[in-house]
Amino acid sequence: MTWWQALIHAGAVAATGGRRDDVEQTEQGTAELVEDAELQAHPIPEPRIPSAASFLNGIERWSVVAYDGVVQIVNAHVAAAVCRRDRQGVLHTTGELHRSFALAPLKRMSAAMRQKLEQSCADIEPVEGDLVEQPARYLEMIESTVRKIRAHHERELAEEAIRDLGEEEWLVLDGRLSRSPAIAKHPRILGAIKSHGAQFLEGRGLERALTLPAGHRTSVFLVRGGHTRTEVYSWYLRLWPWEGNDLLYGLLRIEARADPETVRQAAALSGWLWAERAPLATPATRWDRLLYPLHHVEAYLNARAPRDLPSRRASSRLPRLAS
Amino acid sequence: MNAPAIGRVVATELKPSTPHEFHFWTATETSIGIGAIVKVVGTPLHDRIVYGVVTEGFAYSDLATPLHDVVGAEGDPTSAEAPTARQQIRYWTAAVLRQTPEEPLQPVPLGQVYVAGDADVAQALRMDAFLYSATPTAIPVGLYTSGGREAPVYLDADFLLGPEAAHLNISGVSGLATKTSAVEFLLASIFAHFPAHKGRIAAVCFNVKGSDLCFLDQAGDLNDEDRHRYDALQVPAQPFKRVQFYAPYKSDGVNLNTLRTHPDLVGDVEPLTWGLQEVVDFAEVLLNRDDIDAKADAFIDFLRDRVLGRTFDDGFGTTHRVTTFADLDRLFRSIFDGLEITAGGRSDTWRTHHIATMRKVRNRLLNISTRCKGLVTDDGPSSDLPWKEFADRTVYVIDIANVDPLGQDLVFARVVSKLREQLERRELGVDAVVVFVDELNKYAPGDGPDTYVKKMLLDISERGRYLGLVLFGAEQFRSQVHRRVVGNAGTQLFGRMDMDELATPGYQVLSPATKSKLATLPIGELMVRHPHFTQPIFVRFPRPPVLRGRDGVGRFPPAEDVPFDDAVVRQLVRLDRRVRPNQVKDLIADREQDDVRRALAAVRRTRPDDAFAYFRKVLGGRVEPDAALRREHEVVPPLNPISDEPY
């Protein structure tokens, strides 16, 4: 018996993995319970799926495509799309925004190269050239810039989608709601957060949230965070049993508008989102937390992304053996 | 491009496009299916039009493994349906029918896919060459109906009826009214569209089972859809205008051995009866190979060359003129008596032939007249096909369904040999004859002994197209028919097939989906292979314009066999409507039936103005065979002597 088997034998919960979760690019938030006196785990009821729902997601891709001296010139693509689910469960794209552009510190480029870039590329996003001599930090800055542009597109598209949203229709976003006040305050928009870099709970409440059984949600709490500082209500929802995996396995954090109605609806909304576990969003690596419709939107955007911008995960420079 | 695209060609490293095959996807809801003809229009960079036929279809979702579905449903197949439908694909494989330009032959480009229109179908199947030429040779075979279209599909007469290629073979399980119906429709189509510059054409159909072909002159039931198809194919929806039916007699020698004996129809049936000469010419057909050795063969040839139809001295003082089985029997008795009595039993050979050999041949030959009684008569050919006078666009139906297999072989061998001989001499009356033979499994099996009939079918298959002798063969199991018979068929039709049959090597070229479609093919749909079509094509054809056998028997129930005297009356009345039945019955009341049959045969041969008077005259005494029929021996040479042994 190994030492960890001895621990499990003594009552510890078996686990595998220990992978690093993506860190949310946000400040540490604060939480304030708006349901129950203490954070509780609530079983979720039988799911009731709304007759109409749309799903919004976005992608980003970028790659260094040229060097002007040590200046790294980046080709980037961001896109976002909304898909509406029809009564047969088939998703149809109802809105899409995309942008393919160059990122370059124009002031740090040689005159000839800058002129050539400006002549040949219609969309250039200028970036600061302070970090040019520090390539690694420069690339972090590039990544952050691209992500912001993507977030901007998603926000813009979400605001468009709100205008088209039917009376009974819900919109589920991949990520946080606090992108804009209009989004955060809409009565039928939910944010599904898969990454748990920012923790809003502590102590007993945090433990209850992270050890939430499958098919349960936590009490609703108020979150104040993000650059808009807009308040939203939130709760955790466990889609799949974490035992045998890791604490964040199958754990979603849901955001909805900060309104007492949200507390009343939390159970029913959790039931709905729990039903969205199927079909599995495989082969996505985080299928345990990724709702299939959001995965579909991402797959759609990836399929339409420029072929010369490979996903950053495909890092091998060897030719592929087969398709 | 008027119609919208229905799909897009996709090619990957594992499933690339080739010059002969490509893959494309469509929307989940699409009108196309296996057998649909599609058109690929290349991009301006790869300016090329490709026509293909769908041979395989796939549907799959983004589910990486079935286990993920189990996990998603938590192992419960009855769990609620997932709220979102998985992304799925309809992915098709198509075989290339034609590329434009044809050279250089290149892989199919990535392009948009369209449902083929009528003009596209003609292009794809290379029908434009014979459909729009100065001397068109197009014969409609059916309608291509996939994807909601109705495009006529044509066969090239030069490749269906010769001389470029010829023959047609049709396979399919029994009982689905496909094989016979298809041939009946195709004959109607040929008669309507056979080009004038190719001359005159007729068909000889052997009815080998039931009443399949007994009502080709009667209109069948057609619905509006059938009529619409006839209009689309420009074939008249009418029964055959000119049909001649032939059937041998039953063993009583007066009732016809056919199911077309209803009083309203039996008058059109001509008796088919042959005599000794016709039988001996084809003795090899009738005599079992194991039964006949070189000595018997030699004796039969001796009879044929030296005895039949000639004045012949038996060497014991008797002169014979052998024209009938009775004459032959008398000759044999005379020889045996001569050897026994005159020679005192000291010799057992006659003209170098051993008595045992002669006894064996006698038994076999005389047995034929017993087994085929009704077809074979003592008095020579009283009734036969209208040799040298075949008429254009006429169907000659020979009903041998109820004839002894030996008799069927004889009829088939003699008729086909005569057709071959007269076509060779260009004296048949038509330039081409379609011979329809059902049950090729029986007549030309892939294994078993080399019978005369099989050799004859092989000969037609391999050389008939030069003569205009075209074989339309049908069978249930193509794999069990001689390879050269089916292999030489330029055009092949397939109805619904048995899965076991489809598993045989001959069908390996077909995709699993095509096989699956063949195994479930509805009535009225066929798969066609033709020299101009690079891939099999599915077509629908209307029900034949004639009364189907089963329906015909219902509408025209066969008459019960009538007594001998009534049958004689009926035949005489048919020849001369003035004949009074009672007169005939009184005349034959106390006469030998054989005498009456001979008299009747004489009347049929002579066709006198006053049938009854002539009948009474010839019945008066021994009715001698007509001298005019004592023709010189004109043997139709056998195709290939079965035995290589010398005479």
Folded structure, characterized:
The complex is a heterodimer of chains A (323) and B (647). Chain A has seven helices and twelve strands. Chain A has 323 residues and is α+β, with helices and mostly antiparallel strands. Chain A folds into two domains: 24-52 and 172-275, no CATH class; 59-165, no CATH class. In chain A, the strands form two sheets. A ten-stranded mixed sheet of chain A has the order 1-10-11-12-8-7-3-4-5-6, with helices on both faces. Chain B is of the alpha/beta class and 647 residues long. Chain B folds into four domains: 7-124, no CATH class; 166-270 and 388-552, P-loop containing nucleotide triphosphate hydrolases (Rossmann fold, 3-Layer(aba) Sandwich), CATH 3.40.50; 277-371, no CATH class; 564-629, no CATH class. Helix content of chain B is 33%, strand content 18%. The longest helix of chain B is centred in the middle third of the chain and has 20 residues, at 405-424. The termini of chain B are far apart. Mean pLDDT of chain B is 87; it is low at 628-633 and 638-647. Classes of the chains: A alpha+beta (323), B alpha/beta (647).
Shape of chain B: elongated
Task: Please state roughly what percent of the residues of chain B sit in beta strands, choosing from under 5%, 5-15%, 15-25%, 25-35%, 35-45% or over 45%.
Answer: 15-25%
Tally of distinct domains of chain A: 2
Shape of chain A: globular
Main β-sheet description of chain B:
10 strands, mixed
Mean pLDDT of chain A: 87
Would you summarize the structure shown here?
With 323 residues, chain A is α+β, with helices and mostly antiparallel strands.
What is the topology?
The complex is a heterodimer of chains A (323) and B (647).
Chain A: H1 3-9, E1 30-33, E2 41-43, E3 53-68, E4 71-85, E5 91-104, H2 111-120, E6 124-126, H3 135-164, E7 170-174, H4 181-184, E8 189-193, H5 203-210, E9 216-218, E10 221-224, E11 231-238, E12 251-257, H6 260-275, H7 292-304
Parallel strand pairs in A: 3-7, 5-6, 7-8
Antiparallel strand pairs in A: 1-10, 2-9, 3-4, 4-5, 8-12, 10-11, 11-12
Chain B: E1 7-10, E2 21-26, E3 37-41, E4 49-61, H1 66-72, E5 88-100, E6 112-115, H2 118-124, H3 128-131, E7 138-144, E8 151-156, H4 157-160, E9 168-171, H5 179-193, E10 201-207, H6 224-233, E11 243-247, E12 269-271, H7 276-281, H8 283-286, H9 294-307, E13 311-313, E14 319-321, H10 325-342, E15 349-350, E16 353-354, H11 355-371, E17 394-399, H12 405-424, E18 432-437, H13 440-443, H14 452-467, E19 469-475, H15 483-487, E20 491-494, H16 499-502, H17 512-519, E21 525-529, E22 537-540, H18 549-555, H19 564-575, H20 581-588, H21 593-606, H22 611-619
Parallel strand pairs in B: 9-19, 9-20, 10-17, 10-18, 11-12, 11-17, 18-19
Antiparallel strand pairs in B: 1-2, 1-6, 2-5, 3-4, 3-6, 4-5, 7-8, 13-14, 15-16, 20-21, 21-22
Helix pairs in contact in B: 9-11, 10-11, 12-14, 19-20, 19-21, 21-22
